[in-house]
Amino acid sequence: MDGDHFQPDFTLAPGALGQLMPMYLHLDSDCRIRAAGPTLLKLMGTDVIGADLRAVFSLRRPAKLRHAHDLAQAMRLRMNLRRAPGTGFKGVAVPLRGAEEVLVNLSFGYAVREAVRDHGLSDTDFAPTDLVIELLYLAEAKAAVMGELAKMNLRLRSAKQQAEEQALTDALTGLFNRRAMEQKLSLLLASGTNFALVHLDLDYFKEVNDTLGHGAGDHVLSEVGKILSGAVRETDLVTRVGGDEFILILPDLTDPAPVHQLGARILERVKLPFLHEGRPCRIGASIGAVLSADYSRPEAYRLLSDVDHALYTSKREGRGQLTVLRPDDPPSMGAEVSDAG
Questions:
Q1: 244 catalytic, yes or no?
Q2: Pairing of strands 284-291, 195-203
Q3: Partner of 283 at 20 to 30 A CA spacing, among 103, 117, 195, 243?
């Protein structure tokens, strides 16, 4: 039996139809727009009433349109607004009973997020029963959550990096600390890279603390840190390893000459008085150094022990000088001592 026998005729006012289908088009037989849903009017503009469908939309399916019923026969419609930003639609058309007119219902399909963004749409622009709003809100909620997670991850990485930097940094001078020195030493030894190890200890620093106070001593340490940082290359590492002791690691040095030159510059600069609250702080420095290339099998404990011995050789010989210790392996070459002069 024909199902139409069980379907009574009914009429919907445009307002009621717009509530059910906010993006409908009512076309006459010549494809002129007689009415449209409120959301579609928002996108097209109210001046399209009476305009030819093909003047408002570029049709992709059906590609050719002669009569409004061609839309109904196409089953599925594809079209884009001609005005920017060229929003795309999918839809379906049905013929109206007793007339040669058609009713077209459009949707955004997968491009709903872009359409909402481009046209500033809200939930009131969609039918209350349209699941696309729930899906859109879920997508937006997911994007918001993912955005917050990304921000949290960035904050955690930043906090971790800051904690790692703090763990390797001397709080007073801003130089690297003993832990950083030990890490750098291990990396260079593991890679087989040659380097110079330089140990510097301040002379007469205790007198500054005793006579001018610890504030003056802290000022001197900070200023010495600046002198050392300014005297070395970008690839070198300057560390404060405790009290008034500093260790420098200078990669790719195999000859004592540049070490002596560096030591002379540092000793000359450190001899100049440091002013603290208008009062001069006078100190000096003693320096010891070793070259990893002088060792057939350089090891951290041996290098640190020998550079410490070189430092105290400088102090024993009268301070204010640099000693480069040349070990017995290869055969002894003795210690090379130089002063600021």
A1: yes
A2: antiparallel
A3: 195
- For the chain, how far is it from start to end, CA to CA, in angstroms? 118
Across the strands, what pairs with 58? 80
Query: Does domain 3-118 match CATH 3.30.70.120?
Result: no
- Backbone Cα Rg of the chain: 41
Hey, how many other C-beta atoms are within 10 angstroms of the C-beta on 190?
8
Give the pLDDT confidence of 78-105 residue by residue, as tens digits: 999 999 999 999 999 999 877 789 999 9
The overall average pLDDT reported for the chain is 87
Instruction: Show me where the domains of the chain are located.
Output: 3-118, 130-167, 178-339
**From 170, 244, 294, 306, active-site residue:** 244
Tokens of 149: 């997670």
Peptide bond into 330 cis (omega under 30): yes
pLDDT tens column, 92-144: 999 987 778 999 999 988 888 888 888 888 878 888 777 766 666 666 666 67
Predicted TM-score (pTM) of this structure: 0.55
Single out the residue of 64, 56, 63, 58 nearest to residue 27, CA to CA: 56
Please give the structure tokens belonging to residue 237: 């590492």
